[in-house]
């Protein structure tokens, strides 16, 4: 059948959540008695391989594989499967003057997924079509063009390309197969394809050599034990359909549920009576050769009859065998049936009483090749867990993201836990800073801590993903306010002379928190992910009590209504809306939304328009603007805000990409990744405190800022050399340099900014500085992630043994998704190369910042003779005179004296 002509039917794309959509197609349920507890306990004990067998490689299992060119049509590839009677074929590409390279495997599961995609093309959503491969297939089908088989490789997501060397051990192969892979290709010394090994070949080998596998008789006992006694029957629910379902229903169900066969059931006791089974091979052998789309609407009862009619017999051989076994069938007999059917699973049904003319008995379960190999693996002491997937992360909340994704069913949206917090933090900082000028620092600080507490409390109780994202946004508003107000209040209660020291202490506290975050998160994750949010609640409550008792209240004129009238409501709303509308698509573009989607374009356009309106309101309308535009006429502020945006890129990207370098490129464990971040954050802690002390004595922030950015630039340059062979000592040394640079600039630039304006602008200047740093981090993460992914994709395409469909998964989820020891090293190296691209980006940013700060107008913090000497901090309402720039001819003498 030419699928380009097929237009009938309904269904969902194969990559959508797998659930049946028609009433005649269902998953059935029943109960299966557990295996008896006595009599065969020895069959469940793990044994050790015979040393001679353990030393065997996989070379004796290699079978020839049929190769086809990547540019032949899918229809022609299906014909090859039928002609050659193959399980699957290898799809090859070859550039001029090079060896052919395998780009993927193609089998009847992929053919079924392809046909289903073609016949349901008209019902696909715009979200479905954002997938480039699916979009190309659908476009070609609509234009009646041939689709190259290269696009259909592993379209079913059941057929990943795994390449192994022929000296790979038998136990490694068993481990790979027992975790869900059906076949692997074997490559020679020149990376050419030598052949293929299927899971059925390994099953056949174990079944034929069970008496030689181990010196213990345990495996032999397993072979002769019944399925019921072994407990290997996968109980219902089982993917099934009624005889009244159509062939298209069966194709849809197999695509959505990710199975290669479904049971056809008559109503009956428990699950129902097994009539037959329909496999992807049956679909391929009858649907593909058909020139009429009417076969898609054929009832399964008629389809099964077609399978069993004489046209299906050639030389007495049934081309479409449908086998079932009994619960009392032995494990060895079941293996024989699996090998005879050339499918991945057989159904387990009771023997009908009385004998049924149309059925094989009540359905009880299913046994697959993976189940068989998992039995062998467990008996030989090899862990077999198809669902095992390692996760790595560094920060406290990130540590529990996999658990959150599982509990709330939000695996495809889990990054919004961080995005919602980041967007809320960024958008709130300048608004909260100005509110503290109007209502007082104490009231606003306690309010934002309360918001942070409520947000974390709600996050811990979250029952849905939307609930959690909303709660994290509430926490983000509070967190952004805390970040700004702590610095503002520090500036209020500490004189300019001492401010560098105390801001250094504050920066040290922030750095230390970043460093211990991974350790705290990892420790709390053992108690459940909710405690990662809840543990901050008592700490926050204690902080509120302490601040209420100890922090003096600002004496501000006017009653509450007068203060409310001062609030720049229009500017605040425009600021919040524009930041959200810009940061949300920036954070999710290319991951959750296509950059070309209407949603991203509309949000960015609206955000840009609202940002312009915000500037107009701040310039012409607001009585007390949250961001006075005249501040940008101050040269020092313009330079500091520019460098703040730039260094925000490096600062936040380092916290994000260094863990990826450690885990994805170097193969470190998550806890090791956290430990190797400590040279950066701990040295930043010490440097921040030390530079604060130096500033007290020198009173001039500019030399410290220039030195800090210069050292940071050197550290960034050395970091750009990170690769697979970089020693741990060099990693630590280079990060120590960056830690010195970060510690020497983050707080000293804030002091310089505050010293460049009058006291009345201190809160706004501080809030804006924090806003620009977070904004730089948000934009930088997008830019650097895009650069990394472009380079990573380019590097992954160079690796023979990776299918085109696997590359996006590796980019999204990390190198662990390959589950292929043969290409692991190459994938890790690809990550190292792509991350080096990010680290190289840091160098010109740090260099430009180091040059830019040289143009700062020097300011001198007041010494003991400039302001009255005080013991300790002065009150919030103390007058403070704005500092004037130092004339050039006086700079040297005043800095010294």
From TrEMBL:
Its main location: membrane. The keyword Nucleus does not apply. Residues 155-212, 233-294 form the CBS domain. GO terms for molecular function: transmembrane transporter activity. Residues 15-37 are annotated as: Disordered. GO terms for cellular component: plasma membrane. It comes from the Eukaryota. Keywords: CBS domain, Membrane, Transmembrane, Transmembrane helix. The chain crosses the membrane at residues 414-432, 444-467, 473-493, 505-525, 531-549, 569-587, 593-617, 638-658, 673-696, 703-722, 734-753, 838-861. It is a multi-pass membrane protein. Residues 18-31 have a biased composition (Polar residues). Residues 367-861 form the Major facilitator superfamily (MFS) profile domain. Pfam families: CBS, MFS_1. It is found in: Membrane. This is Uncharacterized protein.
């Amino acid at each position: 059948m030419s699928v380009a002509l097929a237009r009938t039917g309904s269904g969902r794309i194969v990559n959508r959540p797998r659930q049946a959509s028609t009433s005649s197609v269902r998953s059935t349920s029943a109960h299966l008695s557990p295996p008896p507890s006595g009599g065969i306990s020895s069959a469940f004990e793990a044994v050790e391989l015979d040393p001679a067998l353990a030393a065997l490689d996989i070379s004796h299992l290699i079978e020839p594989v049929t190769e086809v060119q990547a540019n032949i049509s899918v229809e022609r590839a299906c014909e090859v499967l039928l002609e050659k009677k193959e399980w699957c074929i290898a799809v090859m590409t070859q550039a001029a003057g090079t060896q052919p390279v395998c780009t993927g495997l193609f089998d009847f599961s992929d053919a079924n997924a392809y046909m289903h995609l073609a016949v349901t093309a008209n019902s696909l959503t715009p979200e479905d079509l954002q997938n480039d491969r699916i979009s190309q297939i659908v476009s070609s089908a609509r234009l009646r063009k041939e689709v190259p088989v290269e696009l259909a490789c592993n379209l079913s997501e059941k057929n990943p390309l795994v390449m192994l060397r022929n000296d790979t051990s038998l136990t490694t192969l068993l481990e790979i197969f027992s975790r869900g892979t059906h076949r692997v290709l074997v490559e020679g010394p020149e990376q050419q394809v030598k052949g293929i090994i299927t899971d059925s070949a390994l099953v056949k080998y174990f079944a034929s050599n069970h008496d030689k596998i181990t010196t213990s008789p345990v495996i032999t006992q397993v072979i002769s034990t019944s399925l019921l006694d072994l407990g290997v029957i996968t109980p219902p629910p089982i993917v099934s359909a009624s005889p009244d379902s159509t062939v298209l229903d069966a194709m849809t169900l197999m695509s959505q549920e990710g199975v290669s066969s479904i049971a056809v059931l008559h109503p009956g006791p428990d699950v129902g009576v097994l009539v037959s089974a329909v496999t992807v091979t049956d679909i391929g052998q009858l649907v593909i050769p058909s020139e009429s789309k009417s076969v898609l609407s054929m009832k399964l009862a008629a389809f099964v009859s077609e399978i069993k009619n004489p046209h299906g017999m050639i030389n007495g051989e049934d081309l479409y065998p449908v086998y079932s076994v009994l619960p009392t069938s032995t494990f060895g007999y079941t293996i024989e049936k699996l090998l005879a059917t050339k499918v991945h699973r057989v159904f387990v049904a009771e023997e009908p009483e009385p004998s049924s003319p149309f059925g094989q008995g009540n359905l009880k379960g299913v046994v697959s090749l993976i189940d068989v190999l998992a039995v062998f693996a467990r008996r030989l002491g090899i862990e077999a867990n198809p669902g095992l997937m390692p996760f790595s992360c560094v920060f406290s909340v990130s540590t529990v993201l996999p658990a959150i994704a599982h509990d709330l069913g939000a695996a495809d949206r889990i990054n919004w836990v961080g995005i919602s917090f980041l967007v809320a933090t960024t958008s709130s900082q300048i608004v909260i800073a100005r509110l503290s000028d109007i209502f007082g620092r104490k009231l606003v600080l306690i309010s934002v801590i309360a918001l942070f507490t409520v947000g974390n409390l709600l996050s811990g109780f979250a029952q849905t993903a939307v609930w959690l994202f909303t709660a994290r946004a509430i926490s983000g508003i509070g967190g952004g306010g805390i970040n700004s107000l702590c610095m503002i209040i520090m500036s209020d209660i500490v004189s300019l002379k001492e401010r560098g020291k105390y801001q250094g202490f504050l920066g040290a506290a922030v750095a230390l928190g970043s460093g211990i975050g991974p350790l705290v998160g990892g420790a709390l994750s053992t108690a459940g992910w909710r405690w990662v949010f809840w543990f901050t609640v008592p700490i926050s409550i204690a902080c509120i009590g302490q601040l209420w008792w100890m922090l003096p209240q600002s004496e501000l004129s006017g009653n509450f209504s007068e203060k409310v009238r001062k609030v720049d409501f229009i500017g605040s709303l425009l600021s919040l809306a524009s930041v959200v509308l810009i940061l949300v698509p920036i954070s999710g573009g290319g991951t959750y939304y296509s950059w070309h989607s209407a949603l991203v374009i509309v949000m960015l356009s609206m955000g840009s328009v609202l940002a312009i309106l915000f500037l107009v309101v701040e310039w012409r309308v607001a009585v007390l603007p949250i961001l006075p535009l005249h501040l940008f006429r101050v040269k020092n502020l313009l330079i500091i805000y520019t460098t703040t945006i730039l260094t925000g890129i490096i600062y936040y990207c380092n916290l994000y990409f260094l863990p990826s370098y450690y885990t994805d490129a170097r193969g470190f464990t998550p806890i090791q990744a956290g430990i190797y971040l400590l040279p950066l954050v701990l040295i930043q802690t010490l440097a921040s405190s030390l530079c604060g002390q130096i500033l007290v004595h020198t009173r001039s922030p500019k030399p410290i800022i220039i030195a800090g950015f210069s050292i940071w630039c050197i550290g960034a340059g050395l970091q750009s050399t990170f690769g697979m062979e970089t020693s741990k000592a060099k990693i630590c040394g280079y990060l120590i340099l960056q830690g010195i640079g970060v510690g020497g600039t983050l707080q000293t630039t804030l002091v310089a900014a505050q010293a460049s304006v009058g006291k009345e602008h201190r809160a706004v200047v501080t809030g804006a500085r924090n806003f620009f740093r977070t904004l730089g981090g948000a934009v930088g993460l997008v830019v650097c992630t895009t650069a990394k992914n472009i380079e990573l994709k380019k590097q992954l395409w160079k690796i023979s043994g990776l299918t085109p469909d696997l590359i996006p998964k590796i980019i999204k989820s990390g190198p662990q998704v390959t589950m292929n020891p043969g290409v692991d090293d190459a994938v890790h190296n690809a990550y190292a190369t792509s991350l080096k691209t990010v680290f190289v980006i840091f160098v010109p940013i740090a260099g430009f910042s180091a040059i830019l700060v040289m143009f700062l107008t020097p300011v001198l913090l007041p010494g003991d003779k400039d302001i009255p000497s005080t013991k300790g901090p002065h009150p919030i309402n103390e007058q403070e005179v704005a500092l004037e720039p130092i004339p050039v001819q006086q700079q040297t003498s005043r800095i010294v004296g």
